[in-house]
Write a structure and sequence with these properties.
single chain, about 650 residues, alpha+beta, 5-stranded mixed sheet, 8 helices
Length: about 650
C-alpha cells in the first residue's frame, strides 16, 4: 500500500508539472502577422457554400517580423475556447480595431473556426467582413491578437437602427404569457409581412431584412435567428448548395423544427420585373403570409411538396407534432396575437372568416375572387390581414374593409370600380393601408398597381377608471387603474384628486405612460379621483370616481392579567386588547414598582399583544400597555398586581 501511494503522489506531481504553464522568458522569436479571407464562409458576406479548406499556416503575402519579446511557453496548456469566443464577440460588438487573444492560448489552427462561428452566430454583426489579419508566435502557434475587417459603409447609426428595430419588433409582437410556439409564429409572420425578396440579389443580412425590409433568403434566415434569440428561442441557419438556399432550424419546447420564412413569402412570378421595392406587387402580396414551411420535420421539409434537400445540420428535426394537424398550415394570412387572444382569417364555404382562438367566428363574409372577364372564380381567399389602433384590415375581391375589435363595427374604406382587375392584398403600414390590385392572384402583370387609402381614425378616445376599493380607512393603500381606448393608442395619463371638504384639487401624477398609481387614504370624507388621458394627437378626455374614506373611532383598549395576586416567581400572562383607531396596532409594555416608583420596559412597540411576566420582589406592581395605531395615535392603560 505504501509503495502504491508513493507512485500516485509522483504521478500527481508529474501531472501538475504538465498542466502548469511555465514562466515566460525573453528570447528571440518570430511574431507573424497573417492575412485571412473567410468571406465565403461568413453568412454576413452572402456565402451559402460549405467552409473552404483550411488555408496554409503561412499564406502568401503574410508579414514575418523577428522581435525580442517575452514569449510565453506552455506545456500542454489547455485553450480557453469560451473565453476567446467571448472576447471576439465583445470586440466585434465594440468594433475594436485589434482584439487581444494572448490570454486564451488559442492556436492558429483554431482561430479561423472561432472567428467564423462568432460572426455567423450573431446576425447583429452585419458590419463584419470576411477579411481579417491575426498575429501569432511562430514557434508555438499561439495567437496574440486578431484585427477584424469592418464595412466602412456601416455607420454607427445603422447599428443603432438595427438594435432599435429589433426592440420595436419584439415590443409589437411579443406579450407576457406567450408560449414558445406563439412567439416563433408571431415573429415568423412579422418577417414575412414586412420583408420582401430582393430580386437584385445584393442584400443578404439582418440589417437589410429588418431595417431596409428587402433581402434574399439568407437575410430572412439571419433576421429570424436574431429575433428568436432575443426572446430566448434557440435557432440556427442552415444552407443548401444544391438549392442555393438558406433557412432556419429552431428549437420549440425542446424539439427542433425547420422554418423557411422566405418560401412562406413567395415572389409573384413574372418574366420581367422592375422597380423592386418593399411592398411592391412584384415581390409579393401585402398582408399575405403562408405557413407551409413553419415548424415542420425533416421528413416533411424533404417531401415532394416542400422540396428541400442538400442541407447539413447539427440537429435532427424528428418531431412530427405539427406535420399533420397544425391550425396554421392552410392559412395564407398572419396570425395576430392581441391581449392574450389570437386572430386570423381562414377560408369558409365560399366565404372569408375572421376567427378568434380557433373556434369563435367573429365575422363571416360571403365572397369569391372571380376571374376577370369570366363567370369562373379562384378557390381560396386572397386577402391581406393586419391590425392597427383597434381595427383589423382585410379585403374582398373588390373592397377594402375594416373591423373594429371592441364592438364588431365594420366599414368599407375603398371600393374597386375597375372590372379589369381584382384586389389581391392589403396591409396597414406607416398609418396607411396599402392596396394591391392585379389581373391574376399569383403572376405579376405590368398593369398591377399598389396604392394607399387612409386608415380609419374615427375611434373616439375613451378611458375607464377603476379602484381596488370604493371605501377605505385612513392609511389604506388604494390602487387606481386607468385604461385608455380609441384614439391613436399612444396614451399618457394624469391623475388628480379632489377633497370635497374643501373642494381643492391636488396632483397625484403628471402626464406619464404609467396608467396605475397607488394612493394612501388620508382624512375622512368623500374623495374624487380623476384621470385625464391624452393620446398622441393631443386629444384629451377625463373620467372620475369617488372613494369614501371612513372616519376613525377613538383609539382605546384594555389590559388584563391571568392573575392579580401572585407569589414571587409566578408567571403571569398579560394580554392587551386594542379597539378603534385605524387598526394595525403596535404594543409597548412597561412596569412600575411602587416601592421605588421607577418604570421598566418589558417590550418595546411591536405587534405582539400578549407577553408573560415573572413576578419578582413582593409589593404592588403597576403594569401598563401603550397602544399605537397605524396613524401614530396612542392610548395607554394599566392594571395593578400584588406580589406576596
Amino acid at each position: 500500500m505504501k509503495k502504491r501511494y508513493t507512485g500516485l503522489a509522483a504521478a500527481a506531481v508529474l501531472l501538475l508539472v504538465l498542466i502548469t504553464p511555465m514562466m515566460t522568458r525573453a528570447e528571440t522569436v518570430q511574431l507573424v502577422t497573417a492575412k485571412a479571407d473567410v468571406s465565403s464562409a461568413l453568412y454576413q458576406e452572402g456565402g451559402l457554400g460549405s467552409l473552404p479548406e483550411e488555408a496554409s499556416s503561412h499564406p502568401e503575402g503574410e508579414t514575418i517580423t523577428t522581435v525580442e519579446v517575452e514569449a510565453p511557453h506552455f506545456l500542454a496548456a489547455e485553450a480557453d475556447v469560451e473565453g476567446a469566443r467571448a472576447a471576439i464577440l465583445e470586440g466585434l460588438k465594440n468594433r475594436q480595431s485589434v482584439i487581444d487573444l494572448l490570454d486564451y492560448n488559442i492556436t492558429t489552427s483554431m482561430i479561423r473556426d472561432l472567428y467564423i462561428g462568432v460572426v455567423n452566430d450573431h446576425p447583429e454583426l452585419f458590419y463584419v467582413t470576411g477579411g481579417y489579419t491575426y498575429s501569432y508566435y511562430s514557434g508555438s502557434g499561439i495567437v496574440v491578437s486578431i484585427t477584424p475587417g469592418y464595412l466602412s459603409s456601416a455607420e454607427e447609426a445603422q447599428v443603432n437602427a438595427l438594435n432599435q428595430k429589433v426592440r420595436e419588433i419584439i415590443a409589437s409582437c411579443i406579450t407576457a404569457g406567450m408560449t414558445e410556439e406563439e412567439k416563433a409564429l408571431a415573429l415568423h409572420d412579422y418577417l414575412v409581412l414586412h420583408c420582401s425578396y430582393d430580386l437584385s440579389y445584393s442584400r443578404y443580412n439582418a440589417y437589410n431584412a429588418l431595417v431596409e425590409e428587402l433581402s434574399v433568403c439568407q437575410g430572412y434566415a439571419l433576421a429570424y435567428k436574431l429575433l428568436l434569440t432575443q426572446v430566448g428561442i434557440d435557432a440556427v441557419m442552415v444552407s443548401s448548395n444544391e438549392m442555393n438556399h438558406a433557412w432556419n432550424l429552431i428549437k420549440v419546447d425542446d424539439a427542433w423544427y425547420h422554418v423557411d420564412a422566405t418560401w412562406d413569402d413567395p415572389v409573384r412570378s413574372s418574366a420581367t420585373l422592375s422597380d423592386v421595392t418593399p411592398l411592391h406587387p412584384a415581390t409579393g402580396t401585402p398582408g399575405y403570409a403562408r405557413h407551409t414551411y413553419f415548424l415542420v420535420s425533416d421528413t416533411v421539409i424533404a417531401d415532394s411538396e416542400h422540396n428541400h434537400s442538400g442541407w447539413s445540420a447539427e440537429y435532427t428535426c424528428n418531431s412530427t407534432k405539427y406535420d399533420a394537424d397544425a391550425y396554421w398550415t392552410s392559412l395564407k394570412t398572419p396570425v395576430l396575437f392581441l391581449n392574450g387572444n389570437k386572430y386570423y382569417l381562414r377560408e369558409g364555404s365560399g366565404s372569408l372568416q375572421l376567427v378568434k382562438n380557433d373556434s369563435e367566428i367573429l365575422l363571416e363574409e360571403t365572397c369569391r375572387w372571380t376571374v376577370v372577364n369570366s363567370a369562373s372564380f379562384y378557390r381560396g381567399i386572397f386577402s391581406g390581414f393586419s391590425y392597427a389602433d383597434g381595427l383589423f384590415y382585410y379585403n374582398t375581391g373588390t373592397e377594402v374593409k375594416s373591423y373594429r375589435l371592441s364592438d364588431g363595427e365594420g366599414k368599407t374604406l375603398y371600393t374597386l370600380t375597375d372590372d379589369s382587375c381584382r384586389i389581391y392584398g392589403t396591409m396597414v403600414k406607416d398609418q396607411k393601408v396599402y392596396v394591391m390590385t392585379g389581373k391574376l392572384p399569383s403572376t405579376y402583370q405590368d398593369t398591377d398597381a399598389l396604392f394607399t387609402v387612409p386608415v380609419v381614425k374615427e375611434v373616439a378616445l375613451g378611458v375607464a377608471l377603476t379602484a381596488s376599493q370604493s371605501t377605505a380607512d385612513p392609511g389604506d393603500l388604494v390602487t387606481i387603474t386607468a385604461t385608455g381606448n380609441g384614439g391613436d393608442g399612444k396614451y399618457q395619463y394624469k391623475f388628480i384628486i379632489n377633497d370635497t371638504a374643501n373642494d381643492k384639487w391636488y396632483k397625484l401624477q403628471d402626464y406619464s405612460s404609467n396608467n396605475t398609481i397607488q394612493w394612501t387614504a388620508t382624512t375622512a370624507g368623500t374623495k374624487r379621483i380623476m384621470v385625464d388621458i391624452k393620446d398622441g394627437t393631443g386629444k384629451t378626455v377625463g373620467k372620475n370616481i369617488s372613494i369614501v374614506v371612513n372616519g376613525i373611532p377613538e383609539l382605546n383598549g384594555k389590559l388584563t392579567a391571568s392573575a392579580y395576586e401572585v407569589n414571587s416567581g409566578d408567571i403571569v400572562t398579560l394580554t392587551a386588547t386594542a379597539m378603534g383607531g385605524s387598526g394595525k396596532y403596535n404594543y409597548k409594555f412597561i412596569i412600575n414598582d411602587k416601592t421605588d416608583d421607577k418604570w421598566y420596559r418589558l417590550q418595546d412597540f411591536g405587534t405582539n399583544s400578549v407577553i408573560t411576566w415573572t413576578a419578582t420582589t413582593p409589593g404592588t406592581k403597576r403594569l401598563m400597555v401603550d397602544i399605537m395605531d397605524s396613524q401614530g395615535r396612542k392610548f395607554g392603560t394599566n392594571i395593578t398586581i400584588i406580589v406576596k
